[in-house]
Structure formats: C-alpha cells, structure tokens
Design brief:
This protein has 94 residues and is of the alpha+beta class. It contains one helix and six strands. The strands form two sheets. It has a four-stranded antiparallel sheet with strand order 1-4-5-6, with no helix packed on it. Strands 2-3 form a two-stranded antiparallel ribbon. It is globular.
C-alpha cells in the first residue's frame, strides 16, 4: 500500500511538472524594449528577416526586443552563447 501511494504521488508530481512547462500555445509576440524569454524549443537568430542563420536560442534563454518588426520577424539582441544582434521570428516568447 505504501509503495502504491508513493507511485501515485510521483505520477501526480510528474504530470504537474509537465503542465507547468511553457509551450508554443502560450507563446506571444515580443514587446519592444523588453528582455523576453524564449518559449520555443529553439529559435534561430538570423542576419536579416528570413536571412542567414547565425545562432540558436533555446527555451529559457533571453532576447532583448529592440525593433523594428518586419515580415513576422523582430530585431534585437540575443543573449547567451549567441551574444549578438540579429532577427528572430516573432511570436515565440513566454
């Protein structure tokens, strides 16, 4: 009985942990002037809107949205290992 109670508690904790993770359904456009958290699994940083790839931001990393917006992309500064200015697809922030 004790083992089944522990198993049930562990299963409940795991289910709650999964539902607490941000998903694309909760993603939003970036706010200019705000340092936003990436909600996508990965988000490519590009030289121009839909331009050449120059790095990848991963869920939980941050991007300072500076603007402007162009064709579904937004310009700003990608922190972390990218650590440079570039364009990302808008709509993938928590």
């Amino acid at each position: 009985m004790v083992n089944s109670t522990r198993l049930a508690a562990a299963a409940l904790a795991a289910a709650l942990a999964v539902t607490a993770l941000p998903t694309a359904a909760h993603a939003a456009n970036g706010t200019i002037g705000q340092r936003e958290t990436v909600c996508a699994t990965d988000l490519f940083v590009r030289t121009d809107p839909n331009g050449a790839w120059m790095g990848t931001l991963y869920r939980g990393q941050t991007f300072l949205v500076e603007g402007p917006r162009s064709g579904g992309y937004v310009y700003g500064f990608a922190y972390g290992h990218v650590n440079r200015h570039g364009w990302v697809q808008d709509g993938w922030f928590c």
